[in-house]
Amino acid sequence: MREADERMIVLVIALLIGILIGLFIPISIPQDYSSYVAVGLLAALDSIFGALKSNLKGDFKVDIFISGFVGNTLIAMLLAYMGDMLGIPLYQAAVVAFGVRIFQNFGEMRRAILVKNKSFSKEEKNQ
């Protein structure tokens, strides 16, 4: 198994543990912070989908994932905060941008999986 695959497995396990903790520990977010948390979660999901896509393509790098995860999340939350201070819903720009990127990453992952499966089934038929 490649080193990148092992790191991806560790990251997926950490994500699953985080999801389980979130499901079983009741945490309520004050409504004042809900837009910040929502934009932060979208940024985090964008980074996760990007990491999964990179892993499928074989060019996953942990340092790029971590810096993108933290950086995108902080920038998105800062953008939402600045918008609140200015009275402009800037968080919507982050929602649109991350939403588009999540769907693009998902589409590329789907295509990569289908191409791999198609080439795998052709190899089986040739043997």
Describe the structure.
With 127 residues, the protein is mostly helical. The chain has one domain. It contains four helices and no strands. Helix 2 runs antiparallel to helix 3. 19% of the residues are buried.
Computed structural class = mainly alpha
- The helix content, as a percent range, equals over 70%
Series of secondary-structure elements, N-terminal to C-terminal: HHHH
Largest sheet, in brief, is: none
Low-confidence parts, pLDDT < 50 over ≥5 residues? none
**Strand tally:** 0
Q: Over the alpha carbons, how many angstroms does the gyration radius reach?
A: 18 Å
What is the fold's blueprint, element by element?
Layout: H1 3-24, H2 34-57, H3 62-86, H4 91-126
Helix pairs in contact: 2-3, 2-4
